[in-house]
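User: Could you check the structure of this?
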Amino acid sequence: MDGSPLAKSRGKRTSFPDHHIEQELSARPLAPGDSLSAWGIYATGSSKFTVNLMLENGQYIMLHLDFRPPPTGNQVVMNSKKPGWQAEIRTALPTFINGQAFKVKIHCLKNEFEF
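Assistant: Sure, the predicted structure tokens are below.
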């Protein structure tokens, strides 16, 4: 392990040149009570970052969290894709500070996600 947060989780890690990271979790389906975390370091001027929970085939996205800092919106856009995009829910974006780490924790509930 290289000490990075993704290397500590079970599964396979793949990095792409444009800084997208794909994390394959264990084969066990998510269940109520499970939690997942994503984290990074915010840089001023970032256009957005996205967290997707999707099925292996990539056709269905159970949860899509799209963090859009200023000037692209200053909001979090949440929705799902099954098979088409569902209605969006938008909320205010938490304050991010240049160079500071952030963490997004997602809790699996019975019929919904909480973050």
